[in-house]
Amino acid sequence: MDASPTAKKVQAITVVSVVVANMVGTGVFTSLGFQVVDLQSGFVLMVLWLVGGLLALCGALGYGMLATAMPRSGGEYHFLSRIYSPAVGFVAGVVSMTVGFAAPLALAAMAFGKYFETLWPGVNGSLLASLLTIGVALVHLHSVKAGGRFQTAATLLKLGLIVGLVVVGGVVSSHGSVSFQPKAHDFSQMGGAPFAISLIYVMYAYSGWNAATYIMNEIHAPKRTVPMALVVGTLIVTVLYLALNGIFLKTTPIDAMKGKLEVGSIVATHIFGAEGGKVFSGLICLALISSISAMTWAGPRVAQVMGEDYRALHWLSYTNARGVPRVASLLQLALVNGLIWWGTFQNVLVYTQFTLNLCTLMAIGGVFVLHWRGVVVKGSWGYPVAPAIFVGITLATMGYLLKIQWRESLAGLVTMLVALIFYWLMPRSAQSSSEKPKEVEVI
Questions:
Q1: With contact defined as beta carbons under 8 Å apart, do 401 and 200 qualify?
Q2: pTM for the whole structure
Q3: CATH class of the 5-426 domain in this structure
Q4: Which of 20, 102, 322, 362 is the most exposed place for a label (fewest CB within 10 A)?
Q5: DSSP sequence for 408-440
Q6: Is there a contact between 206 and 128 (Cβ–Cβ < 8 Å)?
Q7: Cβ(211)–Cβ(96) under 8 Å?
């Protein structure tokens, strides 16, 4: 079932904003505090964020190829259903609905609440996070157009905030305790476990580069627009992240950030003083709304597409008069609020990353499967180097996770096993997404 004509009016600028907003969120304002626990070299930390950006770019190039060959909403659910089997796609769809969007959305809302608590001590951050997710969901439930306008405005606000922090931070005196000059022992650190584990947090900060593939039915000229938006959005975010983390390390002592979640607030206090830091923490709260909005928009489209393909899940495909998947949106909202009230930030983050990395690994690996089958996407950028780099680094990182954070990693595997069991027990109709894609050409 295609989206309604009204829904197919999202232009390139909005699609890029969705990609940027999905990427720039909780991770960049929270993860550096965990990285500096084991890594104190400014050079190594900047290389870490550069590697994360290059990995995201390789992933974006690979997903651009998949989006061109198989232009339909649903992300990994749609891709893996057609590349491997409907069973594999179904598991990926369940992961996307729960781990892929509900968990990161909850993390962003939890970070919002945490930052708000620094402004007004005593305020219930979890309650604020919950109310925010409800308010944003109401905007997106109104219409695709309203959600798109809200998304673009929120993303522009976020970009302005980050650029302002980088500019001001670049001219203030240095209070950081790191050196950006490479030292001999720095290179040995890049091959160790701390670097690999830190890369997990960085990959989480960059996650979202595939966001446009979840709403393809609502995008004008998706074969052309989606690959462009994935690459452009990822490049913008990579530049922003390198600049932002450079400012964090330049202006703030590592000991002040070590092990802390609200890194953005700590940095702002060192740059602007106590009162200025409070004001900037408020702005960071506003910036997180953009990420919450982007995931609120994209996430329910996976459930909607699954509802279109499976009779037992048909209720997930119900839309309102303006084409918004209302039931899927409300289901995601319920999952998000459950995690807000019963989850812990760090455990949810690691659990999320392992499970999502496995799905994206299979999707990018699917690029090679398509070429092996003779489904060559003419005009593909970066093949085979980009997908090979992504697969290699992701496999290595997941290996470290299984060794160091095996409980959360196994929990992710159990989630996928439960989804697979549910698939085989569920009565299902024929899946239109199981057809093999034909050869296509980039316009």
A1: yes
A2: 0.81
A3: mainly alpha
A4: 322
A5: HHHHHHHHHHHHHHHHHHS-----GGGSPPPP-
A6: no
A7: no
